Amino acid sequence: MSTTLPLFWHLSSASKKERLDASVKLVGTLEQFQSQFQPKNAPAATSGSDDEGDEDEEEEGASKSDGLDLLNAQDVSYSIRRLVRGLASPRESSRLGFAVALTELLSRIETVTCSQIVTLIVDGTKTGGSMTGQEERDVLFARLFGLTAVIQSGLLVRTGSLTTSASSAAHASTLSSYEETIKQLIALGENKSWLRESAWWTIILAVDALKESEVTWKKDAVDVTLHQLFEENKDWSPEKVALALKLQALHPDHNWRKCFAPSFKNPDLLHGSNLQNLARILKESAVDEENGKDVPKASTGNWKPQLHFVWDIILEQLLPGPNSTQSARGSFQEFFRMVVDASAERKYWGFQVFQKALPRVTQDSMPMLFTKNFMRTWINHLSHQDRYLHKIARQAATDVHAFVQSNPQLGFALILQLTGVNGSQQFDRLTRTKTVENILTSMDAEGIKNYISYLLGQVNVPAGQPTYVGYPSYLVESKHHDLLRREDVRAINTRRSWIIEQFGALIRSGAIPKSDEWVQSILDWLVVHGLFVVKKKSEKSPFLVLHSIPNPVFSDDLRQSCRSRLLSCIGDLNTQATVIKSGEKSLKVPAVASNGEFWIARVLQSLQNLELDSKHVSLQNPLEEHDSALCTKAHELATRLRTVTDERQEAAKGAELLLMATVLQQYCTDGEDEGDTEALEACIDGATRMFPQAKKSKKARKSAVAETDDVVPEPVDIFVDTIIGFLEKSTAYLRTVGNQVFALLSGTVQESTIDLIVTQLERRDPAELLEDEDEEMDDAEEDDEEDDADSEEENEESDAGSEEDEDSNDEEEDVELRNKIEEALRVNGIEAATGDSDEEEEYMDDDQMMAIDEQLVAVFKNRANEKKTGKGVDAQREATHFKNRVLDLVDTFVKKQPSSGLVIRLIPPLIELIAGTGQDERQLSDKAKGILRSRIAKSKEIPTSVDVESTLKVITDLHTRARKVHSSDMLATLSQCSLYLSKVLVHLDSENSLVQIYQQSLADFITRKNSALNTNFFQDFIRRCPASAWSLRHDLLDLSGRSVNVYRQCQVYQLLDTLIGQLPAMRDTPSTAVIEFMTLLRKTLLEVATDACDEKNTLTAAQLKEVFKLALVATRQTQRVDRASASKVWQPDSWHSLAGRLGASNRFKNSPGLKKMCEQIVRLLKSADTSKLPTKADASPVATKRKADDIVETEDGATVTKKTKRKKVKTDKS
């Protein structure tokens, strides 16, 4: 036992892994002891036989009464008793650990009987009157866990026998031990209601074990079980229902009517006649309900949120599941309806039953689950977070989504339930979730088609039925006939509006798998109901929508909604890419179907086919003759553009898309917007000139030559101007089409095009915008007045009354203005006329008029300013949104054409835009900044064919602005742009001009105190263009002596440090130039340090330390370039002498670190002469040098050298 005692401690650990490891070690050790044990023959059987065990146990001592020592090793018998006692321990997780170990041990050893262990458990877990409540609970749990261990180990129904003596043998398990186990479990459940569920679950384990066993007394054990459960125990509980259903499935031939009587009339517990009583039992009602007195129910404990295990057994029989072989019993729909109760506790259980039943349902059984009460409860608790059951309702929605992901073929059936009779078509809106949308994204293509067919079937009232279906006949025949019809038509229109929204959602979602078939069917449906009037149905038509006539007809609002949704669907499709296979390659192309054809082209083709079918449909708003001719010409031109196959094919596609988008917009307007016609004419003109026909007549050539005499805008400028006009409008369709077209036309953009775009980004005063709007309105009013002058004269008399009404209405609307005027009159002692008095009016004289004149002027002026201010704010907001859309064009161009020289022309206006925006236009500024920093500055490609002079002018302007700007963020943006232009100039062999610009900026930074430049501006240039920056080395040395202050001088030394650190990257730099510069640098640094010692400058110890760091870096780089010349260049004697001057200096004598740095330079130079230093090709120079950062300054200003820390290496003492 001395070897097993330590193993028991870890059985109580809170860690599951530690408990399992301890159990494995304990059982393994006990198996070894048992295999080495040699049992001794006993004169008689002890405790093994159920018949003679009692007499033998009385003769044994107290420690030997259980008979375990007869056939088991001492450690084994002790461990069994210890494990049984440990089940009642309240320490941590000891009950779990001891139960697992006991179960595993009983399953491994064959030298104990069931009777022995059950007796040991029962005797060791007796309750007493002196026990506290906690102690009693621990003992009862110990008995439950012990009996469960007996069952799960297989000891309860183990076959075979144990030899206890030469003349007797004991069976491992007997009928009496089985009966005793069942009795103890039933008593345990009756004693404490909170233990009943666990106790009866253990009984089910025993029944399952008995079914799988091969014991000779199996039939008798079944009879004993039925007797104990149904004859001696007449109370019903959910646990008893579960066990009854289990036994019925295992023994279907038994006489169950006798067992269930009189509580249940039918032997099938799930029969419809038993549901009412069964529901009362499962609800665990504490009081008898109506007609429920004949069903005795067991006492119930407190309600708990966990669902009872009986539901797993019930669902297994009511909803076997798609992969089950057994057939369903009873009606789950009826059963589920009776379980959902009004109490919140029962509703919580209802959600749990729903979660358990959902994975089992099929398409046919799904309606049984989504009952009216459940859907109402689910929607109510899902809609608000403060609802009591909101969390479980959200979990149910998550389970629905997961269910559809694993069963996409059932997604359509689920949507029918959520949006059907018991649910709501606005399920997502009411619940504020995306449940239906998520289901749609998880459905397969077949499910999407079925859903679309379902939506189309909901559009019309079935043929032969009146529109007021669903109302009682006596109401339909009454005088309220028209009212019912109007209400029903309103409901139909609401449903149709929802269907239109669903169609839009299907196309808008990029996660839903698209197929040309169902997308085209939606677009055709929107075209027909948005643009046409169905006169006659055509069952042979390729358009499914024409197979029936709308009943009732679509209202004007619905037609307008169809047109708007059609355009928005096209806009959504333009942003979604389709995989197009071209040979072995696959490309993602936006705005096209799977065959590469534009979706707009397919819509217009359908529109043309419908126009030809005048027998069945007709346009709701036919185009005028001029507009129709333009559309026809645009169609022909678009067809010709599809034949372009050379390098202009992409631009031809852009022109085609723009033409077709403008034509579709023309159809979808009501003919009141003349701008669309002008845009269409411009697009046709631009496309014709950009893509002329291959063959021209002589007359056409002459006319073309004649046109060149006049200034005609470029075709691409016409296209871009049209796109900008699209961006000014608030429709998403026009914006997406405009961006897509510009992406295709980006390869043909010219300088004039960029100027056109840049003009839109210029900042304008809101007052100017208002003036432009007012002028446009005035022009429009003048045109209207001229056109309608004659008609006004003819109808002057007839319109007089209406004008008076309009004037009176205007007066009534402006109540606030009237009140202010009356207040001004009242202040001057004049009452406003009310119209109620018949007395003679009192007229004001000139003095009174002059007295109120100023106040009236102030009233009207404030009123005008309020209107003007409101208009100004709206105009400024619209201008900001418009510029944001124009920036999308700029971003598209830079992305598509990074090597175009026109990219450089975009930099100045973007800089101006960033500098000129205010706080209310922060989004606009950030977007422009992102284009400059991320899109342009980080571009891997640079323009190759650009004008050097214009590029130099741009970078010069950038540096001029950088010297004056006082914003670190703006300066960083200017620096990024300058680096981009620097790469361009270096590529164009204009490095000298670039260096001159940086020389000027460097001089401004060093010599002017108020310069806005910083070291990062130049450090970025040094790191990105080290070869060009090397030309600034002499300027840095010269300007360091003319710096505006010491701080700026130290910044110059930082730049020199950065520049010298880049020497390894400049492999083509001649060594003579490096040696020459290092010599000048040594003279400058020694001179600065000497002046500091002589107090000729104001360098501090910390600043002088930076100077010496630069000297160390430069010394090492000199050795790397030319080892032999290092000492000659840096003259170690000069540094040794400087170290002496530092020690004698009053300013630096307390900073010994500076002296040590000088001595370090000396040692470094002398070591180059006496030992082999790393060459330029050596890979590890670290061993011969010390970092300058290893020298730090102490609190008193002194500098010391860091001691190198060495890692301690542990040695193996063994």
TrEMBL record:
Has UniProt tagged this entry with the keyword Nucleus? yes
Cite a single GO BP annotation: regulation of DNA-templated transcription
Q: Which GO terms describe its cellular component?
A: nucleolus
- Where is this protein found? Nucleus
Which keywords annotate this record? Nucleus
Q: Which domain of life is it from?
A: Eukaryota
Q: Could you tell me one molecular function GO term of this UniProt entry?
A: rDNA binding
Which spans of this chain does the record mark as coiled coil?
none
Q: Which InterPro entries match?
A: DNA_pol_V/MYBBP1A
Q: Where is the composition biased (Acidic residues)?
A: 49-60, 768-815
Q: Which Pfam families match?
A: DNA_pol_phi
**Region of interest: Disordered:** 35-66, 765-816, 1171-1191
In terms of PANTHER family, this protein maps to: MYB-BINDING PROTEIN 1A, MYB-BINDING PROTEIN 1A FAMILY MEMBER
Protein's UniProt name: DNA polymerase V
* The species this protein was found in: Tricholomella constricta
